[in-house]
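[Help] Beginner question about ligand-bound structures

Sorry if this is basic. My supervisor gave me a protein sequence and a SMILES string for molybdenum atom and asked me to "get the holo structure". I don't really know what that means in practice or what format the answer should be in. Inputs are pasted below exactly as I got them.
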Amino acid sequence: MASRRAPIAGRYTAEEVALAARNRGMPLEALRHELTPPGLHYLLIHFDIPPADAGTWRLRLHGSFKNSLSLGLEEIRRLPSTTLRVTLECAGNGRGQLAPRYPSVPWLEEGVSTADWTGVPLAVLLEKASPREAAKEIVFHGADRGFDAGVEHHFARSLALAEAMRHEVLVAYEMNGAPLPPQHGAPLRLVVPRWYGMASVKWLQAIEAIDRPFDGFQQARGYHFRRRADEQGEPCTHMRVNSLMAPPGIPDFYTRRRVVDAGEVALAGRAWSGSAPVARVEWSVDGSWQDAVLEPARDLCWRGWRAVWTATPGEHELACRATDEAGNVQPLDAPWDLSGFGNNGAQRVHVTVRP
Ligand SMILES: Nc1nc2c(c(=O)[nH]1)N[C@H]1C(S)=C(S)[C@@H](COP(=O)(O)O)O[C@H]1N2
Ligand SMILES: [Mo]
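Answer (accepted):
No worries, everyone starts somewhere. Holo just means with the ligand present. The predicted complex, written as structure tokens, is below.
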């Protein structure tokens, strides 16, 4: 079995650039919108977007269920449905800022977005199939297939049965009121609010109940916090508390450095946490912190914040950080992780203020 890729330091490789071009992020100016505008939602596609025909697609429920099921899209659309506004963030968001970094999608901070997802609560499907007494985990199988670290597999992830039964977990067929687009999992995907994005399996073709822990690649080897390659590590689950601002002013094309005029500058951004609602957002200029004004609290979706900065001429560094109701405080710098997961270190925005 081939082993993990060795961390890299310094310039981005051709492979990272190719991954970044396929798996693009949300432009940070889209933080102005609570609901990420169509086409600006970030993308993470491990292999290829699989061919999918909504007319013939079947979702199978099999394994440790009393009733095996095979449902077409029309049957699924006739079941009770709900729409939830959900913020998803890639577990690898921020990886590209770590040194050394894992060779993968080199996100800086743009691997996060919000969409309205419509679908049938997973619990409705699980109740129809009725898990057997021995069922421990529910595995979600995607239709996409490829290799990682020399191992060929379909993208698949599992949830413990109790987690899968949470009423907010959806099998979604619509995004923002329209059928799922190919890149976001058409015709069916799982949406697991509060968890990092890898749990929300796209191109969902089978739901399997199993009596033992799932040992698939993306579950047992991928998505663990590790400091050394020879440790099992801790599984990635809920999104860590995090926040961003829309960079103010206007950018330089190549460096993306910002320029603003001196005087009052409106700052705005959003904050989220998979553990508890966001309770506080602070922002800073050159390391001196103050509280931001919060918009009303949201449940599964990021919370808006704003502030007014009286900008004085010169070079300045802005930052922001959030705290959630569970008392989790976003760190200025997150602990280093071998695979680059969970980097919720505070965003820094360098700004040139002109008189
Ligand atoms: N089948 C399948 N599901 C998948 C993935 C994938 O590559 N294949 N990527 C996962 C990861 S790592 C993330 S962050 C989210 C991204 O969802 P989005 O592309 O709709 O934003 O999908 C998840 N579901
Ligand atoms: Mo991800």
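A couple of things worth pointing out: DSSP finds five helices and 22 strands in the chain. Helices lie at 14-22, 73-77, 122-129, 161-164, 217-221. Feel free to follow up in the thread.
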